[in-house]
């Protein structure tokens, strides 16, 4: 039975997140199993020891994960159960997909007490929703989960969590955490929650996984609250993007953003083909796209790097937004 580690392992910076993942999990081929492996084994996005998070950041480890994932992928009935579970999703939102994967894992590991429990004070008054109620070390624990992808905006004098902003500029790492800490994690204390709880919640924490993206691969000094081992990428404007003529590329669809990519070589693009694809995208759509660089191995392209390519006006708009919020 997996347990919470007393001292989470600190992963070194000697390997990239991609190198680490391919070394441990490249034998996995099913995309849902690979995504689940990344969710359960990826470095934490946040520093659980940072004072600003008030001890409310969860860290998780499963010593039997490799054996469990291998059995999941190699047992047809279990793999089919996972696919049915994912096929029941009401939407293709990445956050919902990641949450559904974890729900499957927690249920299979006999940790899940409840998932996505909506709490209402009255018929028209929704107080909030429990992402996960889990049985951990004998107690009832409330976990809020988030899978996030933030780009660092560096126009400020000193960097902080709010300088990591979403690609669509709808939120920031700081604002997301404040909402989680001061609203969602307090849900078990609300009177309307009590009918949903068979016993007192012993801990309420945030489990956050994701990737952080830095302009032109420049990694400034540590940002308070952010893990030094978080998975990293780059971001750059379309005009500033330089493609390596010796590398092949792929635009990742949103539901494949979690784990480092493993792409059939028939689906990769040359630099020339990728320039055309990017031009076509930004001709009609101003949303950033996630571009991965790949190295060929055994009939596949394995991700070596990833970055968000953004419209040329994105940095100016991001800087203006951060200036206002500061």
UniProtKB/TrEMBL annotation:
<protein>
    <recommendedName>
        <fullName>DUF1853 family protein</fullName>
    </recommendedName>
</protein>
<dbReference type="Pfam" id="PF08907">
    <property type="entry name" value="DUF1853"/>
</dbReference>
<dbReference type="InterPro" id="IPR015003">
    <property type="entry name" value="DUF1853"/>
</dbReference>
